[in-house]
Amino acid sequence: MSLVSSEPQGHPEHAYLLANKWLNANKLAELVKTQGCHLLGLVYKKGKFSAIEEQQLKSAIDAYRMGKGLTEEDMQEIIFPKNEKQKDNIFWSEITSAVPQRPIIAVYHHVRRTCHPMKQQGKWSSEEDALLRQSVADLGQQWEKVSERVGRRSADCRDRYRNHIINKEIRVTAGPWSKEEEDQLTQIVTQMTVDQGKDLDNDVFWGRVSELMGGKRGRQQCRIKWTDALSKTVKNEGQKPRWSQQDAFILVHKVDSLNVRDDTEIDWKTLSDPHWNLWSAHTLQRRWLTMKRGIKGFEDMTHQEIMDILRVKKAQLPAIPSVPRKRKERKVTSAAAIADSELQRDFPTAEVSQGGEA
């Protein structure tokens, strides 16, 4: 599948600022709100790098290497200098210019992560776990120093320690959650968010949640259990909603409205709205992939070709049942978020594709 496409140019002053100023997340957020006059508010992208951006960065790095007559070993020394304070700002600014809506600090961390020589080392051994535990005991959570001793990337050491080493002796590593555990997790998350006027989906500190669970479930376990199972029930006043053809219809409609070149560019957290907020970003992404993979030959199609097929398959909004069900109806009727006139404009009449839950 071809990913060749031109990046939207956006505002040149924004692109120059992002490629040349090492701004942290707080400063970027401040500039979004306060930048005035000719800049009219800084605009930049966050989240996972898309497949197109990955390709653009790779091309920029290759062009830099060939233009300077450098070897692959030379590039490793530029990307991973012995002293981080000696980083080559010209190199980082030049390749960041290839993805004009990305901050230079985000490109720096992304490239160092994807180009790291230790990025793919497979499953952790018990000996490595023991060395990691001892290294943290000796050095504290100084992950770069721990990385040198363990021989794994600093981010991998950090995640391994947080997700698998801490409270390993008391953690439940497998098996279904008990009703008591689910109730406890729900109470912790709601107290951390709703009770303080914060977002149920985005303002949760999962390391702290794991601590409040007594360490019996890891931060990753808590996050997945909440986002994929419990959050939708809480939002639906205790009723467990089922993914419907109405939801599939709306998901296709929303993805189509984004006008992205490839679905790796989608920030799934932005798809929910007050009328359709039951589903987590992970659930929406998983449902989209299920629909996409249901198309024969999707691997060789562009995103637009896939979109054209799904737009027809999900063109007609399924009728809302007129006879009340015995169980409590969902609090949110997702179809209500889309005006009839908008549906007729965007979706020509077609037979609804039948299919159950994926």
Structure, explained:
The protein has four domains: 103 residues, no CATH class; 40 residues; 57 residues; 102 residues. The longest helix is centred in the N-terminal third of the chain and has 18 residues. It is 50% helix and 0% strand. It has 358 residues and is mostly helical. Helix 7 packs antiparallel against helix 8 and helix 11 crosses helix 12.
Tell me about the biggest sheet? none
Task: Label the overall shape.
Answer: globular
> What is the SS-derived class?
mainly alpha
Order of helices and strands: HHHHHHHHHHHHHHHH
> Into how many domains do the coordinates divide?
4
Instruction: Determine the number of helices (DSSP H or I, runs of at least 4 residues).
Output: 16
CA-CA gap between termini: 25 Å
Helix content: 40-55%
What is the CA-based Rg, rounded? 24 Å
Uncertain regions spanning at least 5 consecutive residues: 1-9, 35-39, 328-358
- Mean pLDDT over the full residue set: 80
Task: Write a concise synopsis of the structure shown.
With 358 residues, the chain is mainly α. It folds into four domains: 12-114, no CATH class; 126-165; 179-235; 245-346.
Give the helices and strands, then pairings.
Layout: H1 12-20, H2 25-34, H3 51-68, H4 72-79, H5 89-96, H6 104-114, H7 126-139, H8 143-150, H9 154-165, H10 179-192, H11 206-212, H12 219-235, H13 245-257, H14 281-293, H15 303-313, H16 340-346
Helix pairs in contact: 3-5, 7-8, 8-9, 11-12
